[in-house]
């Protein structure tokens, strides 16, 4: 339903001019995707792919040269719509002289919140992102992770419907990354729509409903993760004992890699083998299979495949 | 809507004041300003029966220089720092109109500069009282004129910052301050060129038309010679400064409203 579309980019393009001779660089070319209410949408792509440029056009920091960005079915130029979005920029730079609660107070003022609401909500969010122990520390004396957490808190201050997070886990340790991932899932549980832009692909794969893969300013793939990744097994991984050279020779090119781990062998087989036939051959040679794990295509595999394909396509024959 | 804009302006002012209070550079500027006022009083004592006149004149001059530098630093920094440190990303992605952002930055900067002006003025009054000099209406009028000058300089700094780099914006604003205080000399030069038919006079005419006449807001002559400053003059000067500030901020808005932030 159209009402469910929270954000829509329709054939959006943006060109920058750089250098002394104002050389044209197409940062984003005819990008289109939609985000539906209540979903976590992942925007992935290599550095310089056009992710942050797309996000800046959504938040009104950049104006598209062509195409249209619509937020809640309205053109993005309407400033009042920004009271319904929360935005964490990549490597957020906050005012170095302010302390966390002062940051909340400042942004709360920009959002038109009352003094009391700024303080109550600010304290609540700083507690949520794990910053309540550093309320008297100015931003200038915070670690990168602490700045990131404070940045996330300011993005959620006004309880926005759409939360845009550009690399929210950047600079965080594994525990911090996990906490932010859990926070995003919790936000979705509260009914929020989330645009999640990250390089940490396992997390994107874990929590996103749909994903757009963007490369060199063009959307290469967009859709539900299960549709994009499919059910095809790309490789099998097995651990076996009593492995022999004769067995290796008989399996031939069905084998991708083999690693010696003491008496054990870790064996990687191609995804298109008939696994029952392979197991029969292994049994015939007297080897014992300890475990067998089929691997389907991960988001990381898709990411590497698509970006490499795009790079190859660029190289002239 | 008005409540939202009022709260946004309040946020900008509070943020600027907090930054000012925690900025060591500002304290250094104020310290040197105070030291200069103190040193100037010694110059007055060296003059022959003109100590009060010399004191008033030199202290006003020192305050003009310090506060004009502060207005350029603050006006340019208020926009450029937001862009360079990318804090503008989190500000303009909130429901803040770009016009409100510019006005907010101007008002916040002007509040900060006015507080510094009041501080230096209080020091001046304190030393004048200590030295048993008269506190005249002209003294208040002269400092009010300085306030109007600072408002125009701050608006000019914000105007140039809306499209230029920090260094260039500071240079352009300083040029406006310099040329704006040399308008009588430029008028004379224009008249001299006109007599000889030199086309440079057209350039001077254009400059005089564009650049604010800050000399008209400089009441040091009236202060020195204890000449009365009519209220109507102060009202006209206020209107003149307000119109200039509005033009400069309007120009800044025209540039800024379509500006991209990469």
Structure characterization notes:
The complex is a heterodimer of chains A (317) and B (262). The mean pLDDT of chain A is 89. Chain A is built from ten helices and 14 strands. The two termini of chain A are 45 Å apart. In chain A, helix 2 crosses helix 3 and helix 3 crosses helix 4. With 317 residues, chain A is an alpha/beta fold. Chain A has helices spanning 51-58, 100-110, 115-128, 144-156, 174-189, 201-207, 225-229, 245-251, 275-284, 299-314; strands spanning 5-18, 23-36, 40-44, 66-71, 74-75, 85-88, 162-166, 193-197, 210-215, 218-224, 233-241, 255-261, 264-270, 288-296. In chain A, the strands form three sheets. Chain A has a six-stranded mixed beta sheet, sandwiched between helices. In chain A, strands 2-1-4-5 form a four-stranded antiparallel beta sheet, with helices on one face. Chain A has a four-stranded antiparallel beta sheet with strand order 12-13-11-14, covered by helices on one side. With 262 residues, chain B is mostly helical. Helices cover 81% and strands 0% of the residues of chain B. Chain B is built from eleven helices and no strands. The radius of gyration of chain B is 20 Å and the shape is globular. At the A-B interface, helix 2 of A face helix 1 and helix 4 of B.
